[in-house]
From TrEMBL, chains A, B:
Family: Belongs to the glycosyl hydrolase 65 family.
The Glycoside hydrolase family 65 central catalytic domain, residue ranges: 324-690
InterPro entries given in the database record: 6-hairpin_glycosidase_sf (IPR008928), 6hp_glycosidase-like_sf (IPR012341), Gal_mutarotase_sf_dom (IPR011013), GH65_N (IPR037018), Glyco_hydro_65_C (IPR005194), Glyco_hydro_65_M (IPR005195), Glyco_hydro_65_N (IPR005196), Malt_Pase/Glycosyl_Hdrlase (IPR017045)
Gene Ontology biological process terms, A to Z: carbohydrate metabolic process
GO molecular function, one term: carbohydrate binding
Residues in Glycoside hydrolase family 65 C-terminal domain copies: 699-760
Annotated source species: Flavobacterium album
UniProt-annotated catalytic positions: 490 (proton donor)
Keywords in alphabetical order: Hydrolase
The protein, known as: Family 65 glycosyl hydrolase
């Protein structure tokens, strides 16, 4: 843990006291989003201290020209970056001729609250300006879930010790840059600026990708709750910015306020020539409803999300706050409404990493969305990859693969690979496995087989072809080996026979062959269509099978474990516990070669395989591998502790499971990795959900049946969660000695609890 | 081979006919240098076609800010680049109001000649301008060996079909950029511009490194050989450029000429405030001598170099031309006069790679300079590393090494590492071995032990400490392993137990321990001084010894060979001969992952070890290893064919040795690697020298005695070379059936020819 300033609370994230050192961290933690856009918790007013400004629009990206020291054949020319979008939140505040700037005045009673239950962010403080004026400020901001192009700000200023002339200067500004731009270029080209009355519209276009976005605002000025219905005294417009000015006089304890409606209309959703019109519609709708009604809608919309997605934890506020923060951020990032979107690793909270889609989506996020939303959402996420199959084939072709072999990108926006480190881009190929596994997992959980004949089979075939071609026949071993890969543990590069990669490669081929057969039997028309399209014949399938049947897995007889890679045992096997703590995190302390030759594991690797394929191994096997690898794991990836938490729980090691749970659920709140100011770790938050449902709850689907092995950490009195299983919602509530089930649905459901089958009738409490 | 337009000639490089496609290639091939500065064969006059302009000053560099995609701890912030220096050669030529530009007129009888015997470059052609004027042009250029700040151009224009007004517009221009600048920044800051009469001086300073350079010119105008003693009609000066204008009228077949003296005076050699004065001295001296005398001096100076360095080959013009081209370029690049300088991989012929010093210097260049110059030259090259020992210790410390462990940089100008690819910078650590080996080699060849107690021992200790710390104890093997390295074969990265690296690591420790003992015995005062300085005790030395004595070497019983690295046999061992030729060179056709998992070897790796340590292995061992590795070697490094040529010769495979010899000696002339336009491969040229002297000549030093095993490729009638062995020059001349020795010296010399000892008396022909 690296910080602990966030106050424990069941439903809110709360910070008290102003500390300039924490501003960037809180900007990440108090971020808001509504699936269509997002906003870091930047101040509306000017701030001359350190800040990381970030506004984001889902799906709008820019392919920045690649920057590398030494070019390698096959590198992509562009890196699709999450774009810092135009600013719609800005409101300069001038009080008695002095600009309000928290780094230049005395700040008291500073407080932030992100109310996750209701979906709003509030900031309040008192400031003593250099001119002696004391004011109290209270700002509420939210991004509407109902009208997802709309953001709302209610900015209240109350003079405390003297009358004050208060000028609100709201603006919209497309003159923004990405902090991580490779060449310090601007990504937005201003196109048009309009304003009239209280409304302004700045239209800009991304270079290259030509996304048009109209950034808009509408402002109303209030005194003591009464709309003054005034127009701006002044409007300044440049090619990419419009700023209004409203001045009012307030007596002590008067509340002067500006309510700003703002946001974006973008050409992904509207005719690009009618963006300002669309924005006017958004504004008109918001004006018609008014602030309170909009806030009411917001609360209702979040209540409806929580109704399904909430997990309760009794007796442990920090644990409760952690899981809700994770669920809240996942829903802020991606709601599953738009099949063109995906779940970026930082969501709408930072620029780092770029791209919107990593293997995180399939390996970590799909289970969460599958269980807490309509199954169409998970299907959309699968379809996203199906739609990008051609690009995956192109991507593989760049690396010399042929015949429709597909390699899905490590990082992407539109299916094209963006990343450019050879050891990742070209070698971290296990990502392909997770994409196939998600198809299997979707069918296992939803029972909806139709996706496979319709779309999934082609993806499975492209992936199987890749593995077949990527494996190398070793005459020495008379087996197939997979050389030169990076496994999930990115602290080893260019290794041979990474167990996880070899295992999932074999599985992908076996699974593809099974599905081809099954589709042939049950969906002959789809089978014929797909086989004709991909030109696959029996001879090729035999070749695949030969590779799968003769895949080599490195194994140590001495330790009784599969080896992470051929040479793992050559390392100096000093456990993490015996490592000087001053050397950690090693990725900040050590040079790369030292990390690579160390035994330290960034994130679950062999154990990731045991997570996916738990049912292929005995609990004794799991225990042996967990005991072997856990002591070398440094968990410097956000994706690591959740898997270890689940496995520790399975092994009945509840203290350890709980520690990992806290680490995954409060990774950002407590800033374990010392980097939260760069943004949140969104995708790993789905891992936190898994660590409760699959770890403590022991939820599994086996043979179309839900199984549970509920366990409780001793710190908790109980916990509950819901899952949408085959279009019925099952609520599971676990307390010491008993597990309660309630089913919202119409059909009875058989569940297996600790090996014993139980029938749950709809709307009837069943206690086991 | 990729091109064959260079005409065969024993002493000259000749091109006939103008082909715009060849301009950049010829700019490299016809480069001139004098050890202190260098110049690509750019045209003096304007040229609007594709050209790569390059002027270089030895030792003047710029630390360009590192550009990488993904930063790793330990990367250097800067990359010291070879700087494109101000232009002193430029002369715009205007003929009857039209600028002469070979890409805009008809060109006939174009011819270039680089006369290596005499050290000058000539270009001649006839041009029909768009205005119909036909002219014949003849330009001679050289960089004086005698006055190494001086370059000389004699530019003659003869109208052929009509009278012509000819304007010569010579200039000096500091407004130059590096093509490879990471951020498109300028590296030169203009400081001062002066001109008077026929002279001009532009002084500029490199940013950051603050090298000051005065670029100067003096011009004289001639008509039919007579100096017109005119002043420029016009002078244009800007902040970084001065251009004069001289106009004369010439009748058909009159020869109008400009003789331009130019060059640089730099703050490495002069008070920075007196650079223009120093330049005036250079000009005055040149004016006093005049063009013909300067050219005469040049011829004499090159004759003196050739007297010692020449290798003759009878009966094979292309082979003769190749070796002389190599010897010529080595001498153009580095003459051993200035101990601050070193031998950059592209010399003065291009920007690529940056830095001036690689392990190439120790592994390839020192033997050449040691045998063809005074032994002080080789000692200077060793001292260069001694002087940078502190930086090597800092470099190792950045990677976590302690206690004075030294890691010499992969690429450097001043001792600081410049390179920034983790797999090279952090892992291609075998470079340390070559630096220690060169100390051993120097002593073996020169018999001068004094370098070791004075300087070498500290270097050997720093290097031994590095290897001791870098090795990892493997409990699994109960031996020391070296994990995560890149060997000389850069087509494998991050491998374990690269045989070459492990072998030289062990050797470095053993050799350091031996020398410590020897110095203790014979130079007790030096021993005491060094031990006190480095704080080395017996306990530490025992630890070193333990690592050396228990070093692991991967070995295949089945094949009877040491393995290039632990996992070499897992590769798909398809020989180069069986590879589709359309796939080569693989570094231009394949993505990096494919190269890495292939068995293809970029340059001698295990065989490099057999080259250095030939006497540790039997000829049968060599044969076995050569037969195993040669078939997988693609020789895509310039440093590869020479080693294979030597070993093929040792094994009596003369056809193969000859093929490799041609490839190494004509690598650039015939552009085997399709990249000659980027510059020449200077350091590998010393390998060409070795392939004759050590390969065909079989020259070795064993127990203070020169041994020879002379062999002749069947294409040759004979060959001869000279070596300076322990301050006496031995000429060796080999013809079928006999080897002749002549000794220039005062002491008789015992040599061993094919195992039989022979005594050579001074100045007496000995035939064996």
């Amino acid at each position: 843990m690296n910080q602990d300033y966030i106050l424990p609370d069941n439903w809110s994230i709360i910070e008290e006291g102003f500390d300039a050192e924490r501003v960037e961290s809180s900007e990440s933690l108090f971020s808001i989003g509504n699936g269509a856009m997002g906003q870091r918790a930047n101040f509306e007013e000017s701030y001359s201290g350190h800040t990381f400004q970030g506004s984001y629009i889902a799906g709008v990206y820019y392919p920045d020209k690649t920057k590398v020291g030494w070019w390698k054949n096959g590198y992509p020319e562009y890196f699709a970056k999450v774009l810092n979008a135009p600013n719609w939140i800005g409101i300069d505040i001038i009080i008695n001729d002095e600009i309000l700037d928290l780094s230049k005045c005395e700040v008291k009673n500073f407080r932030r609250e992100l109310n996750m239950q209701e979906g709003w962010y509030n900031r309040s403080f008192e400031a003593i300006l250099q001119n002696g004026t004391e004011v109290s400020v209270n700002v509420t901001r939210f991004l509407s879930l109902v009208s997802d192009e709309l953001g709302v700000i209610n900015y209240e200023v109350k003079p405390l010790n003297r009358a004050a002339q208060i000028t609100f200067k709201p603006y919209v500004d497309a003159g923004v840059k990405n902090v991580d731009a490779n060449w310090e270029e601007k990504f937005w080209e201003p196109l048009d600026v309009q304003h009239s009355g209280n409304e302004a519209f700045v239209t800009a276009r991304t270079y290259k990708t030509h996304f048009n976005a109209c950034t808009f605002m509408h402002n109303s000025i209030f005194l003591n709750g009464k709309d003054l219905e005034i127009l701006p005294a002044n409007a300044e417009a440049s090619e990419d910015k419009v700023q209004f000015s409203y001045t009012i006089e307030a007596n002590p304890n008067d509340t002067a306020a500006i309510i700003k409606f703002g946001g974006y209309t973008v050409s992904m959703n509207h005719d690009k020539d009618k963006l300002a019109d669309a924005a006017k519609n958004v504004i008109d709708d918001a004006k018609a409803k008014g602030y309170e009604a909009l806030l009411g809608e917001q609360k209702a919309a979040w209540a409806s999300i929580w109704e399904m997605a909430d997990i309760t934890i009794e007796g442990d506020v920090k644990a409760q706050q952690g899981i809700r923060f994770n669920i809240f951020q996942l829903n802020q990032t991606y709601l599953g409404k738009d099949p063109r979107l995906n779940i970026g690793p930082k969501g709408f909270t930072g620029e780092k990493y770029g791209g919107s889609t990593y293997w995180d989506t399939e390996a970590y996020c799909i289970p969460f969305y599958m269980a807490t939303k309509d199954q169409q959402v998970a299907r959309n996420l699968l379809t996203y990859r199906y739609n990008q199959l051609d690009k995956a084939i192109e991507n593989a072709a760049k690396l010399g693969f042929t015949n429709g072999a597909a390699l899905y990108p490590m990082v992407t926006m539109n299916g094209e690979e963006c990343h450019n480190e050879w050891e990742i881009t070209f070698e971290e190929i296990h990502r392909n496995g997770a994409i196939a596994f998600a198809i299997y997992n979707y069918y296992r959980f939803t029972g909806d087989y139709s996706y496979i004949p319709e779309k999934g089979l082609e993806v499975l075939i492209g992936i199987a072809r890749f593995w077949h071609q990527r494996a190398t026949y070793s005459t020495n071993r008379d087996q197939y080996v997979i050389l030169g890969v990076t496994g999930p543990n990115e602290y080893e590069n260019n290794v041979n026979n990474n167990f996880y990669t070899n295992y999932i490669a074999k599985w992908c081929i076996d699974y593809a062959l099974e599905q081809i057969e099954k589709v042939q039997e049950n969906y002959p028309a789809d089978h014929a269509r797909v086989m004709a399209a991909v030109q696959l014949d029996a001879a090729e399938m035999l070749q695949w099978k030969n590779v799968a049947d003769n895949m080599y897995f490195p194994y140590s007889e001495k330790h009784g474990v599969y080896l992470q890679q051929d040479n793992f045992l050559d390392k100096e096997l000093v456990k993490v516990a015996d490592l000087d703590p001053s050397q950690r995190p090693i990725n900040q302390k050590w040079s790369w070669d030292r990390i690579l030759r160390s035994p330290y594991i960034k994130q679950a690797d062999v154990l990731q395989g045991f997570y996916f394929f738990e049912d292929h191994f005995s609990k004794e096997d799991l225990e042996k591998h967990f005991d072997f690898y856990e002591p070398f794991t440094v968990h410097e990836s956000s994706l690591s502790p959740c898997v270890h938490s689940i496995q520790a729980a399975v092994l009945g090691r509840m203290e350890q499971a709980y520690t990992f749970y806290l680490r995954t659920s409060r990774l950002d709140l407590d800033d374990y990795n010392k980097e939260v100011k760069e943004g949140l770790h969104i995708t790993s938050m789905a891992g936190t959900w898994m660590s409760i449902v699959e770890g403590f709850g022991g939820m599994r689907v086996k043979n179309d049946t839900l199984h549970f092995e509920p366990r409780i950490p001793q710190q908790w009195k109980g916990y509950s969660f819901k899952i949408n299983f085959r279009n019925q919602v099952l609520k599971v509530s676990v307390h010491a000695g008993e597990t309660n089930f309630t089913l919202e649905g119409e059909r009875e459901l058989a569940v297996v609890v600790n090996g014993k089958e139980v029938t749950v009738e709809p709307n009837t409490l069943v206690t086991v």
